[in-house]
Amino acid sequence: MTAWGNGPFDNDDAADFMIDLEEAPAWDAVRRVFTQALDTTDYLGLTEGARVYAAAAFLSVALGKSEISAQDYHMIIDDLGAVPDDLAALARKALTRICAADSEIDDLYQGAAYDEWIATVRYIDKALT
Question: What is the pTM of this model?
Answer without folding.
Answer: 0.93
